[in-house]
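pasting for the record
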Amino acid sequence: MSILGNKKVFIFDMDGTIYLGSIVFDFAVKFINRLRENGRRVIFFTNNSSHNGEFYMEKLTRMGFSPARDEIMTSGDVTIGYLKRYRQGKKVYLLGNSELRADFIASGIELAGDDGEDADIVVAAFDTELTYEKLTAACRAIDRGAEFLSTHPDYRCPTEDGFIPDSGAICAAITAATGKEPRYFGKPYEATVNYVEEKTGAERSDVCIFGDRLYTDIAFGIKHGITATLVMTGETTEEDLAAAAPEHRPDVVLPSLKEAEIEVFGDNN
């Protein structure tokens, strides 16, 4: 039996793994539906914090994945969970879109003023509404001693028209100006593994992750004892795979999730 055949929890990266931009991979819909029918737990996890869970609920439903709300997790969710547990009462200056800001407020996290002068913590996310004024306020708050956190480390977000700068790129600019590195959440970090364990109750040996990115999706699995399967439908090329560091080398490499169905069930019915 394939090492994927006995897994109980299946984590799926989204963009590049189950769809690419607005292009849905029909074989991914079929595979995920079959997993549910066979009693397996499905999790959709994205590092992309430019949108919240409600956005992905609507998007995945429209694409035909029929998600339940508790199947969707984001790096923003992990960051909020950490702040609520370990940074109660701290004011946060957030570099993030309006959807993420709404989630922070709804979770009871107090946001700092627009100038960031009262911030205890700066959280940098994938902010497609970023302005120079917001970037400046974040840098000045960190320079004054605010803790520097980030939802996820991705430098680039793939789209149908090419990549756009992601959270890691925004953080790189802040680091260049302040000399301070952030603490990252999302994949591949421990806080995300803890979040998944808390939500699913699963042992790590019973979990596998499918993704298209070596330094987040695959590293997430390799670092934490979760079976890591790379699909070649997104960012990673054959050249990238050949040059990958040991901690970024997947347990399984497949052309797509179509082949994953064969690995799990032994057929592609």
